[in-house]
Amino acid sequence: MPRIVVPLDKSELAEDALVWGAYFARSFGDSLHLVSVWDRDDAMWEEPASSPEPSAERIATQVDSYLVEVAGRDSLSGITVTREVRIGRPADQVAEIAAQPDTRMAVLTSHGRSGLKRFIQGSVADHLVRTLTIPLCIVRPNATKPPIGRMLVTLDGSETSEKALGPAREVAAATGSELHLLRVANPLAEMPYTALAPAPDLGELSKQIIDAANEYLAAAARKGEHAEVRAGRPLDIILDYAREKECGLIAMGTHGRGGVLRLALGSTTDAVVRGADRPVLVIPAHHK
Predict the structure, then answer these.
(1) Is the dihedral of CA 67, 68, 70, 76 positive or negative?
(2) Is residue 276 part of a domain?
């Protein structure tokens, strides 16, 4: 049975991902795999119940008791829940678990402005984006809750951004969501310019760029999918569109090179993850 992986660290922040992990598990008919990874820098080693020099086995037992409690919650009723505790370097351990062939996606909670929290800190998210071939659903604290209803996929004409289409369509089909394709055109940024050339006709060039974007989207969209081109700053347009159309999830592709979620739109995906009040489904360029 395919599974949805949700890493937890005994914090309410990390548990914000549970509602989305459960939603995807029910939608796909998958199991939910709860994971907790601890290293010797974690405060768990200093908890009173541990003893002055706690063993790895004792820590693992305590953490597993927490996962047992989570697995038994009413919000997860009807879902097959498995659990796993590891002690080691969180980035490596979470990546190794999520890379198993039966994993459909991983659902993580982000910290928001100051980066990703604890085991999902920036370095761990970077590592997952660079190494995994599965989608990562990143949930900000206080993000909107399921169901999705409408789902937004951003496209910029690159092969990287188009990698998001396949997984997005799978999620839309499983959840019964309406799919919206958005191409953000930024004529001023996309216009060719040389100092020696005559001043371009900005109006005509803008029209050409918009027309080309519309043709691209028309070719990419399938029957029943909504496609729209809007002009402006990508971050603002994406967030405004998601709010305006009440899209419960934003899907974006990423190169996964050097830093959290850098893709064809530069740092736009990272900015969307930090600025959105709804989850962002990040699909690595090497997604299979």
Answers:
(1) positive
(2) yes
Tokens standing for residue 200: 């371009």
pLDDT digits over 5-42, tens only? 999 888 888 899 999 999 999 999 999 999 998 876 55
3-state SS assignment for residue 70? helix
Place of tokens 């097959």: 80
Q: Cis before residue 147, ω within 30 degrees of 0?
A: yes
CA distance 192 to 177: 38
Residue 285: helix, strand or coil by DSSP? coil
Interval 222-259: pLDDT, tens? 999 999 999 888 899 999 999 999 999 999 987 544 33
Range of the domain at 133: 3-139
Helical (H) or strand (E) element with 140? none
Between the CA of residue 121 and those of 13, 91, 109, 125, 233, what are the distances in Å?
12, 9, 10, 6, 28
* Token digits of residue 206: 């803008």
Quick check: 48 pLDDT over 50?
no
Give the CATH number for residue 50: 3.40.50.620
Judge if 177 and 274 occupy the same domain.
yes
Structure tokens at 91: 């980035």
Domain assignment present for 99 = yes
Task: Say if residue 15 is in the same domain as residue 134.
Answer: yes
